[in-house]
């Protein structure tokens, strides 16, 4: 299965997503902010990234841009709260492949993952 980096400053969400994906057989890495996400991406080269947009230290958009500089083929799905449509558009322009709106359904996360790793 895939090696997936889960990035969110909310630990309960990282844990929830990690459990959901590991139960499907994926290897999970975690980061709590954009700075750690970029470092982890660079050192581990995961198959894909699920990343929150709003985080301290470095937000998801800045981290997305940094990851795309490291690896233009990076597969990144953004996690976003309702009402962040303009930010989602910016993320897509910056290279995000998909986005999942929080609160999310398990099926939506799994379908976004399946679409990118197939």
Detailed description of the structure:
This protein has 118 residues and is of the alpha/beta class. The protein has one domain (3-117): Rossmann fold (3-Layer(aba) Sandwich). It has 5 helices and 5 strands, in the order βαβαβαβαβα. It has helices at residues 11-22, 34-44, 60-70, 85-93, 106-117, and strands at 3-7, 27-31, 48-52, 76-81, 98-102. The termini are close together.
Total tally of structural domains: 1
Top-tier CATH class: Alpha Beta
CATH architecture: 3-Layer(aba) Sandwich
Mean pLDDT: 94
CATH superfamily: Response regulator
SSE topology string: EHEHEHEHEH
Measured as a percent range, the helix fraction is 40-55%
Overall outline: globular
Rg: 12 Å
**Count of DSSP-assigned helices:** 5
CATH T-level topology? Rossmann fold
Q: Report the span from N to C terminus.
A: 10 Å
Strand order of the largest sheet: 2-1-3-4-5
Structural class: alpha/beta
Give the tags.
5 helices, Rossmann fold, alpha/beta, 118 residues, 5-stranded parallel beta sheet
Concise structural overview:
The chain is built from 5 helices and 5 strands.
Indicate the topology:
Layout: E1 3-7, H1 11-22, E2 27-31, H2 34-44, E3 48-52, H3 60-70, E4 76-81, H4 85-93, E5 98-102, H5 106-117
Parallel strand pairs: 1-2, 1-3, 3-4, 4-5
